[in-house]
Amino acid sequence: MTTVDSVSKPSRLAEPDEGISEEELRLAGRNHSMPLEALHYDVTPAGMHYLLTHYDIPAIVPDSHTLIFDGLVERPMTVSLDDLKARPRRTHHVTLECAGNGRALLQPRPVSQPWLSEAVGSAEWTGTPLAPILREVGIGSDARDIVFTGADHGVEKGVEQDYQRGLPLAEALRDDVLLAYEMNGQPLLPQHGAPLRLVVPGWYGMAHVKWLTRVTVIDKEFDGYQNAIAYRVRQDADDPGVPLTRIQPRALVRPPGFPDFMSRTRVLRAGTTTVDGRAWSGHGPITSVEVTLDGGETWSPAELQEQGQPYAWRGWRWSWDAQPGRYVLGARAADATGRVQPVDASWNRGGFANNSVQRIQVAVVTD
Q1: Using CA atoms, how far apart are residues 279 and 356, in angstroms rounded to an integer?
Q2: Domain match, 201 and 157 both
Q3: Is there a single domain that holds both residue 6 and residue 54?
Q4: What pLDDT score does 7 carry?
């Protein structure tokens, strides 16, 4: 990694009442969240799935693309995309969420990609399991982490780098970790990592390395930028922080009625209506969802739909006799490990893992 001090400033917090910067608007223009109305789909259409690209989208020719396995292995290997497609094929329905989802709602606001609550999507990823290939190349007895390198290259906080993330060996050897080459039954789109990406069910999106070029076995905890500096929950600049791993429980409401163009306040006709949405967690199955109409003061239980695959989100619904007035609609989820989504999440300097309860302004009107 090369330090480029003149290019990038250290991370910072927005000043009180500071608006979104021009740099953040550029990020928001390149990346995009999932429209909340897409919660209608159990499998998110590729064009609606959230997208975060750290650097440029690399132009890769699939026919000549290869994946290198090296480091502490007995038999280093280079495989082509066709080689991978000839191996056993698996499809997993997996919900992905950006670790920075909800960042722009925190105060003081961390200056970065300004996500609200929609940096999520749930797709069917097809590829071949990683673990059998790792066993085939022969993992060294001192192995600790597996490093995944993408073809995207840039500068972040003054450090020139390829995008790289490390996974603990035990996580990389899970049966459900995929080297994916299809999304929703079609070849990966360029922005979603074509021709090859990593899928790590249950983990935040930073672990799902796109445009994958190299898998390296090392004998220590990976200390590259994206593990040791970025994607850590810290309270101040000097705090070493705690690494981000699995997704915290969250429920989102599919906004009822129809929106005001600018404010996105929902307008709903009075009467009985069904409120619905999706809930997920990387720690375990969703066991309950509750709905609030007053921003979190009181709660009502929702009905859960059947759970699909283990790391896919779960649908829920709630019947509401909507009377004229103004409401603040939201939902909270709990999972099988006992984790419960908070009304207000704890603040951290990077704005990570903010799974606070969504707040949708709703105006119920009569005809």
Answers
A1: 13
A2: yes
A3: yes
A4: 46
- The residue from 222, 243, 264 where one domain ends is 243
For 66, the 3-state DSSP assignment is strand
∠ CA 231-232-233, rounded to 5°: 125
Residue at token pair 């959230």: 50
Tell me: do 13 and 138 sit in the same domain.
yes
Domain that holds residue 340: 250-365
Averaged pLDDT, 171-190: 98
Residue with tokens 């975060």: 52
Q: Which of 185, 208, 243 is the last residue of a domain?
A: 243
Q: Which of 270, 267, 289, 268 is nearest to 278 (CA)?
A: 289
Nearest CA to 311 out of 331, 282, 340 is that of 282
| Tokens at 105, concatenated | 């709602």
pLDDT 10s digits, 126-169 = 999 999 999 999 999 999 999 999 999 999 988 999 999 999 99
Tell me whether the omega of the peptide bond preceding residue 256 falls within 30 degrees of 0, making it cis. Answer: no
209 and 299 part of one domain? no
pLDDT in tens, 351-361: 999 999 999 99
- Spatial distance between the Cα atoms of 315 and 64, rounded to a whole number of angstroms: 41
52 and 70 in a common domain: yes
- Same domain, yes or no, for 287 and 327? yes
Q: Whole-number mean pLDDT of the chain?
A: 95
User: Is the same domain home to 233 and 327?
Assistant: no
Report whether 273 contacts 255 (CB < 8 A).
Answer: no
Domain count of the chain? 2
Q: Which residues contact 151 (CB under 8 A, 6 or more apart)?
A: 58, 60, 162, 211, 212, 213
- Of 156, 148, 150, 152, whose CA–CA distance to 58 is shortest? 152
Strand order in the sheet with 325-335: 258-259, 266-269, 360-365, 325-335, 286-292, 300-301
* C-alpha closest to that of 70 among 12, 143, 8: 143
Look at residue 10 and tell me whether its pLDDT is greater than 60: no
Tokens of 110: 């961390």
